[in-house]
Amino acid sequence: MDIWVSILLTIATAATPLLIAAIGELVAERAGVLNLGVEGMMIMGAVGGFGAGYLTGSPWIGVLAAIVIGVLFSLLFAFMTLTLATNQVATGLSLTILGLGLSGMLGTSFVGLPGQRLPNLDIPGLTSLPVVGRLLFGQDPIFYLSIALVIAVTWFLFRSRTGLTMRAIGDSHTSAHALGISVIGYRYLAVMFGGACAGLAGAHLSLVYTPQWVENMSAGRGWIALALVVFASWRPWRVLAGAYIFGAIWIGQLHVQAIDLSSFASSSWFIYQPIALIKSLPSQFLSSLPYLATIVVLVLISRNKRLTMMNTPASLAQPFVPER
Amino acid sequence: MKKTFVGLMAAAAALALTAPVQAQEKFKACWIYVGSIGDFGFSFQHDQGRLEVEKEFGDKVETAYLENVSEGPDAARSFERMARDGCKIIFGTSFGFMDAELEVAKKFPDVKFEHATGFKTSENMGVYNIRFYEGRYVSGQIAAKQSKAGVAGYIVSFPIPEVVMGINAFMLGAQSVNPDFKLKIVWINSWFDPGKEADAAKALFDQGADIIVQHTDSTAPLQIAQERGLHGFGQAADMVKFAPQAQLTAVVNNWGPYYVSRVKAAMDGTWKAENLWEGFKDNIIYMAPYTNVPDEVAKEAEATVEKIKGGWNPYTGPITKQDGSEWLKEGEVADDQTLLGMNFYIKGIDDKLPQ
Fold this sequence. Notes:
Strand content of chain B: 15-25%
Signal peptide (chain B): 1-23
Oligomer: heterodimer
CATH architecture of the largest domain in chain B: 3-Layer(aba) Sandwich
Strand order of the largest sheet of chain B: 2-1-3-4-5-11
Order of helices and strands of chain A: HHHHHHHHHHHHHH
Largest sheet of chain B: 6 strands, parallel
CATH class of chain A: Mainly Alpha
Distance between the termini of chain B: 37 Å
Number of strands of chain B: 14
Radius of gyration of chain B: 21 Å
Shape of chain B: globular
Largest sheet of chain A: none
InterPro entries (chain B): ABC-Purine-Binding, PnrA-like
CATH architecture of chain A: Orthogonal Bundle
Domain ABC transporter substrate-binding protein PnrA-like (chain B): 28-308
Number of domains of chain B: 2
Number of strands of chain A: 0
GO molecular function (chain B): DNA binding
CATH class of the largest domain in chain B: Alpha Beta
Keywords (chain B): DNA-binding, Signal
Structural class of chain B: alpha/beta
Number of helices of chain A: 14
Strand content of chain A: under 5%
Largest interface: A-B, 42 and 42 residues
CATH superfamily of the largest domain in chain B: Response regulator
Shape of chain A: globular
């Protein structure tokens, strides 16, 4: 039983940064802004979080710093795309490239330093409960924050007036503008929220997942988060499911590689055969499974054109200039 | 962006050189790295070697480097620029630079080229490499002595000969202590991804391994070992400060003395293109201080290092391949060609080698 708990904990850790970054991007995209700079904002959050945590000795200050840096970095994107109406795809890409380079430069002096780790939650009596104790009451604080974010964003987008307005802007910025809604203002807020989330995801990487700073430590997680938003057809709970499916496939394939097949010799055919089959597959294929799964789901989703159109924010990635 | 910055610096330095106030011309040595010097791994260790050269020669030598240069034909641009910028000796530090470097070496016969881990040489291009497997053999011995479960977990990147050679050497070392030693191998198909490496370490520990070895570059697996109160080995650099209670030792890549000797040879005019594959004997690798092990284990490990320095090769028969066929007879020593092209496991490894 212990091993299953341990696997679930590992999956949660792997899924959390993806989930947080994706939920932030989801809000931005719901408001009609495609920010491909998630990877760049995430890595800036990681270096900022590590640096602030290291210099002040408090990982909590690190988390705050990561969020602030994520927001500041996203403001750069917002200013370019919203105020100057530049192309969102190109600007987002350059934000990623800038973030990767800049974080490397800022982080030079942090390389090789042991960092701070955000402590896991520990509630006396509850955390030590068998099985569910560690899962429900013993994880890192950012994990709980990620779940709270999903609930809050769901409520915000579908139950609050501001959220409905934001979605309306994402679907038709010209109509929203005609109604006197500040399209640019709302979009600034949405992009900043995306930046805050990406920064927080970065903090999770450098303060929880692997408490250290090294260049490129986000290793493409920002791109996976972007894919998850489409995968989830812009719905918060599906982002949660997607992040955990992705995490489960990823962690599962590592376990299958390490598993000793002979210890399953006495198990039933239905357990032994699938494990034996997966174990016989090349590891390169197993490594690419999470990505293949994403593509398969994208294909399945896009089969139904009407459904896709209904879910996709109609003004996504279109620059908005009020005078036009 | 950083590349451009370094380029500007190099250009500025070149201008400074031609200025009349500069009385004595400095000898310029240059490095090209595949990764960033902030990776705390492979490229980081090469850059430590560069810094040693600066320290050794002081004002007589000027150094420059380019980082994050992609492997493949495009690398030629970087080598060419270095050569035009007045570099007298250029070290290309990754396998994939091989053909590009060779091509540029032909164009600049007066510049000396050195290529790490490759196999192509010319009049003015030499190759150098480390016998990493010697260190892995020692690690294997320590692992078998320290593991209570008799199982080690091995996190690996790509199935290239270098990596396979390391796995086999580790297993040979372990089997010399405990013939029934087990190795769990997880391929993550990446040289560097702290998150994935941490996940792989967790999976291996969950599956019963109590010692972790890695052929990937980050400190993440050791940090997991530290969290779990288990043990592991540092990779390429001494990583003990990341895992003070977990690191047993590390196989440290020590390029510095080699770079100093080659730059010196180039300055003296005694430089010749060579094909060097060095190990413990030449001090191009060494074992980091043995920590968290009993004294006698440390002593035995040191004895093995001495034995290897004395000329003994861990790949000395009898060694059987995984499929049970004989590879090396009693007393027979593997030749370098076979080692450099190694694509099979030895007996006792329970894993299918990805082809």
